[in-house]
Amino acid sequence: MFIDVSSLKKSYISGAVVNEVLKEIGMELDEGEIGVILGPSGSGKSTLMNIIGGIDRGDSGRVIVDGVEINNLNNDQLTDYRREQIGFVFQFYNLVPNLTVGENIEVVSNISKSPLNVDEVLAAVQMQDKKHRFPRELSGGEQQRVSIARAIVKNPKLLLCDEPTGALDYQTSRSILKLLQQVNKKYGTTILMITHNAAIAAMANRIFKLRNGEIVEAALNQATVPAERIEW
Ligand SMILES: Nc1ncnc2c1ncn2[C@@H]1O[C@H](COP(=O)(O)OP(=O)(O)OP(=O)(O)O)[C@@H](O)[C@H]1O
User: Fold this and answer.
1) 46 alpha carbon – ligand 1 mean position (Å)
2) Is the pTM above the cut of 0.90?
């Protein structure tokens, strides 16, 4: 298993109040698969993804990614893991406003161990003609394409997407989902994606439903659907 999570617990404590956000989570995802995490607001989706991505740490349990138990890494090792192995895509693109599209991608490729070619990645997200534009000159969908290019240029083993279409209209959302599916096929990148939209689960190999910090359903989807055929 590429991702192997078991008995993962996480609580946030404020004063005398303990908020048990993840309770004995178990989940698995194979290399090259697309996984989708569904669940209501506050169910723990981002917390789970942040722990898998090395942004946050679990309190107990096991989180193995590509054979490495990341709960055992020290802070420096966790930073290296996050920097070298994980690509992040967020709802609000987080591009650097005073850098061009090309520069936003170059700053990541410059600090990566085995980056992909910047122009190849720009072509893969169909943004090569906007290389010298600034983020403010782009639509939301175009900015999300750039943020996907920035995430994949480091050639990550795992792409973590937190509501990647949450700020986009219907058609643009579908084109971004199609792009993610293309990235998965072209580079073999394992993708884990959080969404509120249950229809998106049709493109995933595995679907995890989270409720109140627990996986209430984990389903294997044998008949994945191309993103362009998904409607909602
Ligand atoms: N850094 C933090 N400190 C304290 N509580 C936190 C922190 N991060 C998350 N929480 C709490 O953990 C719970 C789960 O949050 P999380 O962001 O994981 O949920 P989510 O399912 O991703 O929600 P949404 O769909 O709204 O983004 C919430 O009750 C939230 O308030």
Assistant:
1) 7
2) yes
| CATH entry 3.30.310.170 includes domain 3-229 | no
Model confidence pLDDT, tens digit, residues 114-138: 899 999 999 988 999 999 999 999 9
Domain ranges across the chain: 3-229
Instruction: Give distance in angstroms: CA of 42 to centre of ligand 1.
Output: 5
Give the contacts of 67 (CB within 8 A, at least 6 positions apart). none
The pocket around ligand 1, CB under 6 angstroms, is made up of 12, 19, 21, 39, 41-47
Residue with the smallest CA separation from ligand 1 atom 12 is: 21
Distances (CA, A) of 210 to 6, 36, 83, 131: 15, 10, 27, 39
Give the span between the Cα atoms of 65 and 186, in whole angstroms.
21
Distance 12 CA to ligand 1 centre (A): 9
